[in-house]
Amino acid sequence: MRSTIAVGVACVAGAFMLSACGGAQISGTITPITSGNTATSSPPPTTSAQASGGGTDAGTGGGQTGNNGAQPAASNNPSNCKSSELKLSFGHDSDHAMQKTYTSLQFTNISQHSCTLQGFPGVSYVTGDSGQQVGLPANRSGNQGPTITLRPGGSTNAGLVIVNAGPFPADQCKPVDVRGLRVYPPNETAAMFLPTSGQGCAGSVGPLLTVSSVGTSITS
């Protein structure tokens, strides 16, 4: 199945990479929440996030063309969007293909001024009350692109692919129930949290998440 994620918005908390495995249909363990669950700042389940250090997943620059949902800036020199200026949610488009879920992360400017986003969000699974990271940060898909300018109320998306942990051998995956995603907006060191249910792999299995630059999608 070929699925294209709508890109109007710009990936789910500290970052993951896509790991392919074949044959199994996706189970109900991954449940992207498309409405009613959003985050505007780091929630209680997450720890204080750092931009560097082993296992962290702060967002960095890069992206492709596209500014769906973004509007021309009112300011001549808007600054980079901060986590406190953004609302984070899953995009409205979500599709299941084999053992993968294709969805997106949507960033909406909730401030009173224009701001910019460019590059890849940092995304990773987290669990527990302290927001412990599960597995590797999300892999990145695509190339660097232009800056997306968001006027107040404007939004942009980053494509997100979630691989089901179920088909992996349990002794390799070491499955862990997760509470959601830790997401760093591009070029930000303050994390946001997006609740979702599912399982991550704490073992030697590669990243189960893949994220694209803001303003882009990922196709199967």
From TrEMBL:
Keywords: Signal. The keyword Signal applies. The keyword Signal applies. Residues 35-87 are annotated as: Disordered. Residues 1-24 form the signal peptide. Residues 52-66 have a biased composition (Gly residues). Residues 81-214 form the DUF4232 domain. Residues 35-51 have a biased composition (Low complexity). Coiled coil: none annotated. InterPro entries: DUF4232. This is DUF4232 domain-containing protein. The lineage of its organism: Bacteria, Bacillati, Actinomycetota, Actinomycetes, Pseudonocardiales.
